[in-house]
Amino acid sequence: MRWQAYHRPATVEEALSLLHQYAGKAQVVAGGTDLLLDLQQGTHAAPAALVDVTAIRGFNTVAVEGGAVVVGAAVTHAAIESSPLIRQHGTALAESCSVVGGPQVRNVATLGGNVAHALPAADGTIGLLALDAEVQVCSWVEGGMADVWQPLLSIFAGPGKNRLTPHQLLGAFRFSVCPPHSGSAFDRIMRPQGVALPILGVAARVTLDNAGGRAQAASIAVGPAGPIPFRATESEAALLAAPELGPPAIEAAVAAAQQQAALRTSKHRASKEYRHELIAVLLRRVLTAAIERARLC
Ligand SMILES: Cc1cc2nc3c(=O)[nH]c(=O)nc-3n(C[C@H](O)[C@H](O)[C@H](O)COP(=O)(O)OP(=O)(O)OC[C@H]3O[C@@H](n4cnc5c(N)ncnc54)[C@H](O)[C@@H]3O)c2cc1C
Q1: For a substitution probing ligand 1, which of 28, 39, 71, 129 has the most ligand atoms within 8 Å of its CB?
Q2: Is 127 part of any domain?
Q3: Eight-state DSSP code of residue 45
């Protein structure tokens, strides 16, 4: 056994209380598809206890609350892929979760685990980032719990490192209900024999003006393009500055993303020069799809 106790709390207060009692010696687990491999391979110290978050009330639901789509941290990729709410309001997220692993992985692996594992190319994370999502961080406080919503990017510290303390949990994610004339899309390139992470993934969301010609809002996420998931802010600015969202605007966004992204060569996946070319291929595809969807919306 790599741990001595396994807890399955039903409330977030109970889960936080357990994390507090174990004083840093317990580890949160959801689907276990990243964590159990890390424990098996010894890249993660064996914890005294595992705290399973998948039975916590509210962690498994998708709902609209106050103009936002709220997705519980323990919602699986399979549930996201098939959620009509997410397909409508966060198409990029549904598309990104639909390519994670195979069906067996998607049936148990969660969005919370994908984000908390903090890899810059994690597919669900890239889809979520393009929706300008926020994350709910739940913390133990004397006598209960406190929670705060913060920008998704604020919880990443580096490859495989998040900024959560051992007394905190991710509770949920939220992004705005799709405004009129908005669309989003995700695409990635993966080695045919690849396991776990793509060579490059790109997601985008655009909102058009009433005439359908100019961008009123744009968000673009690329991974891996730096130590944490990357928002291509220069590309977003190029789209917003364009008088019309046609091919020249898309090419300006591509050039800006290629210039801003901090690409690197990875031994098992691809060279940085190849990734540079893939930014153009994927961003053209994703922006074209997002703009088409926005014009139909
Ligand atoms: C065969 C295979 C293929 C895969 N393919 C892909 C792929 O194509 N794309 C991709 O992005 N990933 C892929 N993965 C990686 C993995 O499946 C995903 O990252 C998955 O979303 C992790 O979720 P989980 O619920 O299994 O997390 P777990 O393994 O349970 O946890 C991962 C980490 O997150 C922490 N954690 C989990 N939930 C919370 C929470 N609510 N609050 C705080 N911390 C939390 C855990 O403590 C742990 O550190 C693959 C994995 C396997 C084994």
Answers
A1: 28
A2: yes
A3: P
Phi-psi region of 64 (alpha: psi -120 to 50; beta: other; left: phi over 0): beta
Closest to 224 (Cα-Cα) out of 291, 292, 125 = 125
Cα distances (Å, whole numbers) of residue 169 to 87, 196, 284: 26, 23, 36
Q: For the segment 217-268, what is each residue's pLDDT rounded down to a tens digit?
A: 999 999 999 999 999 999 999 999 999 999 999 999 999 999 999 999 988 8
Residues 250 and 285 in one domain: yes
**For residue 209, what are its two tokens?**
């003006």
Distance 34 CA to ligand 1 centre (A): 4
Substitution site in 7, 61, 114 for ligand 1 pocket (most atoms within 8 Å of beta carbon):
114
Instruction: Look at the pTM and tell me if it is higher than 0.85.
Output: yes
Q: Where a domain ends, among 158, 176, 194? A: 176
Asked if the structure places residue 57 within a domain, the reply is no
Instruction: Tell me the two tokens of residue 6.
Output: 């396994």
> Residue 207 is part of a domain; what is its CATH number?
3.30.390.50
Looking at the fold, whether 192 and 225 belong to one and the same domain comes out as yes
- Containing structural domain, residue 268: 182-296
What's the helix, strand, coil split of the chain in %, to 5? 35, 30, 35
Structural domains counted in the chain: 3
Q: Please report the DSSP string for 61-74 in residue order.
A: -EEEETTEEEEETT
